[in-house]
Amino acid sequence: MVEIRRAGPADVPLIADVLEMASRAHLDRGAWDLMFPDASDRQQALQLLAGGEPSWCHRQVFLVAEQDGEPAAALAGFEPRSIGGTELGPALGAIFQKLGFSPDRMAEVAGPMGTYLSCFPDLPEDVWIVENVGTRAAFRRRGLVAALLDHVLEEGRARGLATAQISCLIGNTPAFHAYERVGFRAVEELKTPEFHALMGEPGFMRMTLAL
């Protein structure tokens, strides 16, 4: 039995896992690997992000799919203006401070993250944004993402928004087809040679859906 519900404090470890896997998609590493190469730092940072300062990576914007009572998958759905924008700087600043990172340590990640973010789609204020989609390995291919997408899109409609947007790494064919099945269509590719050299794929695809 599948239940879709709003994420709560106990879901922070799941949300941290989803943030990591969504960032990596089909690649060996993602944005959080660039920012936190050490696995223990990364997991601690993502749990702080999921449970700390408000942001579009906070558990409050996530829906969770439970399979037979086990939290198994999650995704975020939000309207940027309703959460105070999409700037992660304050939340990340608090995390760097808690982890004791020096200014030099933070500066090390600025270049790679700048390259990564140069291809990440903008998140317009008046659009229903769907992001950070992920399923734990043991629960894949059970339709959980489809169920989550149906629920999150209905939430966007209920808020009176006209358009939903989701991003997809170019080359992530399973995710692309999953989003197509619920009505998303590719409208823009954002890619640079620098992103390709860093990540092994050209960039991101922006997909939209009329609600």
Helix proportion of residues, in percent?
A: 40-55%
Report how far apart the termini are: 28 Å
CATH homologous superfamily annotation: Gcn5-related N-acetyltransferase (GNAT)
Q: How is the quaternary structure best described?
A: single chain
Strand content: 15-25%
Alpha plus pi helix count = 9
* Cα-atom radius of gyration: 16 Å
* Class computed from helices, strands and strand pairing: alpha+beta
- Overall pLDDT, averaged? 94
The beta-strand count equals 7
Tell me the CATH architecture.
Answer: 3-Layer(aba) Sandwich
- Strand order of the main beta sheet, please? 1-2-3-4-5-7-6
Folded structure, characterized:
- Helix content is 41%, strand content 24%.
- The protein has 211 residues and is an alpha+beta fold.
- The protein has one domain (2-210): 3-Layer(aba) Sandwich (Aminopeptidase).
- α1 crosses α3 and α3 packs across α4 (89-99).
- The mean pLDDT is 94.
